[in-house]
Design brief:
The chain has about 400 residues and is α/β, with parallel strands linked by helices. The chain is built from 13 helices and 14 strands. Bound molecules: iron/sulfur cluster.
């Protein structure tokens, strides 16, 4: 599904979002045009059933091949030994299990790992593994760049190239699991949680993201519970309204402000879908879940003197009073040329304490991996920008630098 915005605002950012989303064809899914073979990596169970039926095979082959690819990490049909020899040969004629190229791996001093992954067409995305007390979270990207251009986010400054296809999204999990798990004994799992909080807005790449998250939770693939897979959205409300019909992943919303005036500046999408509309949609998502005890996670990036004051915390307390949620406070992580400063520890803990006093579960996300530019909001990849936003941003930075030079003589 492609979500198209109706043009309702004169804002440059929104006009750009609308334009890009309307002009980039849905078929642009990262398929490697040099290969005529079907890449089975990004097919969910039903997609594989359809594929096997199309070549005259029984549907149980789908589960067999899912296990080979995702549980055992096998990419060669010749090694899939519970398939007949003739089927293996047939598969190698028409299909493949193709992974994107890992360009580099960066290891932070604190154990965080970042992979730079080249996709079809040459652009690169990043995924990040964050180990902490008994769990390991993998943050994956869903698009090459992002059209939404939140003012505090490095990804937004890179512009946008295209959606990742389902194989490119699930490949990020495959790469991390295979890199971190082989040779370990027993049930050791390095990657215990997956969050779609890397580059891109997941709900603007709806079909591919849904296929990938359902693979993450499939018993014959990665088998994560719905509590361990989290999709984070800036608030694409029409897509969020449909999400609960096709999956039951955990939901996070990137709020970052307690009122529309401030959020309009930080998250331009808010001018299209204001906070009240977004929170209504998030509650509808929860209502569709069989387990009524579930909560959404509210992400709130704290920026010095922007959204970190006590009155902001109190406003947030009121705003969220009717929404079952927990709040994740994220200290802003500066990136080259960013306009904001990191929140002070005093302001951050005072903010958290106000939320606690009001009865909310509020946690502060520790900054991890900033020595390798892998911290939250710092992911940039290498985007062949189709929006020219990255050039405008670089021009703006150059102007700023020039002004500083002139002033300082
Ligand atoms: S914060 Fe998320 S939605 Fe906003 S620009 Fe960055 S990647 Fe896109």
């Amino acid at each position: 599904m492609r979500v198209k915005f109706a043009r309702v605002s004169k804002s440059n950012s929104l006009t750009l979002i609308n334009k890009v989303m309307e002009t980039i064809p849905n078929s642009q899914t990262g398929a490697d045009l040099s290969s005529s073979k079907i890449n089975l990596l990004g097919l969910g169970e039903q997609g594989l059933i359809d594929f096997f039926e199309s070549i005259g095979e029984r549907k149980f082959r789908a589960k067999q091949v899912l296990k080979w690819m995702h549980v055992r990490g096998v990419t060669e049909f010749s090694e899939m030994t519970d398939l007949s020899k003739s089927l293996r040969e047939q598969l190698s004629q028409v299909a493949e299990v193709r992974l994107p190229e890992v360009v580099s791996r960066s290891d932070s001093e604190d154990g965080t790992i970042k992979w730079l992954i080249r996709t079809a067409g040459g652009s690169c995305v990043e995924s990040v593994y964050i180990p902490e007390n008994g769990r390991g979270t993998l943050c994956v990207s869903s698009q090459i760049g992002c059209v939404l251009d939140c003012s505090f986010c490095a990804t937004g400054k890179q512009g946008f190239n295209r959606d990742l296809d389902a194989s490119e999204i699930i490949a990020q999990v495959w790469i991390a699991v295979q890199a971190l798990a082989p040779g370990r004994a027993g049930n050791y799992r390095a990657v215990t949680n997956v969050v779609l909080m890397g580059m891109g807005e997941p709900l603007l790449n709806f079909d591919n993201v849904v296929t990938a998250v359902n693979l993450m939770m499939h018993d014959c693939a990665y088998g994560y519970s719905k509590r361990r897979v989290t999709l984070s959205t800036a608030g694409v409300v029409p897509a969020l309204d449909k999400l609960g019909d096709v999956t039951d992943v955990s939901l996070a919303i990137s709020l970052h402000a307690p009122n529309d005036e401030l959020r309009d500046q930080l998250v331009p999408l808010n001018r299209k879908y204001p906070i009240a509309v977004l929170l209504d949609s998030a509650r509808r998502y929860l209502e569709k879940m069989p387990d009524q005890r579930r909560k959404i996670t509210v992400e709130y990036t704290l920026m010095d003197q922007i959204n970190d004051r006590e009155e902001h915390a109190r406003e947030l307390v009121e705003l969220l009073s009717a929404t079952p949620c927990k709040i994740n406070l994220i200290p802003f992580n500066p990136f080259p040329g960013s306009d904001y400063r990191r929140v002070s520890n005093n302001a951050m803990y005072r903010f958290r304490d106000i939320l606690h006093e009001a009865g909310y579960t509020a946690t502060v996300r520790t900054t991890r991996g900033d020595d390798i530019a892998a911290a939250c909001g710092q992911l940039a990849g290498e985007v062949n920008d189709r929006t020219r936003r990255s050039q405008r941003y670089r021009d703006k930075q150059a102007d700023k630098l020039q002004t500083v030079k002139i002033i300082s003589g």
